[in-house]
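call fold(seq) -> tokens
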Amino acid sequence: MPRIHTTLLITCIMAIFGFSAPLRAASIRFLPLDEEIAARKLSFRGAKKATKIKDLSAQKRSAAYPFVAGKTSLVLVALDREDSSGKPVTVAITLPPEISSPLILILPDAAAPSGLRTLAVEDSNIGFPWGSLRLINTTGTPFLFSYGGQVKQVSEAYAAMDILPDSEVHNMGVQLLKPEDPQAVLYSAVWEHDLNIRKLIFILPGADAQPLNLKIIPEDKRSKKK
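ret:
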């Protein structure tokens, strides 16, 4: 029997009798929003046992940790907080089915027992290309993002918004504006655009007279070749 027919027959038999595809090995990285979160005692649990996250830093991605992707529930474990039964509080990590290189952003959430929430984003070079910008809005307020003569709506939701500026642009003016009053500038700067650098950008509430703060974590493709 030809190989393709054999593979198809096996797949059909597995579906009929309720067998699922085997779980696959994968790796995962973590990035806390600030040093306060980075200093906490955290681990994550995938297939079976929990793995302590030892190298958390608010300035860079953690090392890659192995886990088993598939029908396993993945959770972040707050070892420094307990529930009513004396067990460490957990935070669910939701991985989109199509994600291949997950980066788990660990963000503050005062309403959660753990004080944390998670957001999984695709961190592969295909899902997050070199030269692109990834905006994460943590303020709960929508904005307009103006860059290089273009304007995009930034949702108030905790979600990743990716932008790939024109490859010919080297320096571009960027602004964050109020949707109800585009003349009200909340942030303004000139950014250097480099096709070798991708930027993860957190939009944060401002302090004092500054309406907003931006935390930018650049990653340079050239540094990976050294």
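The chain has two domains: 23-122, 133-221.
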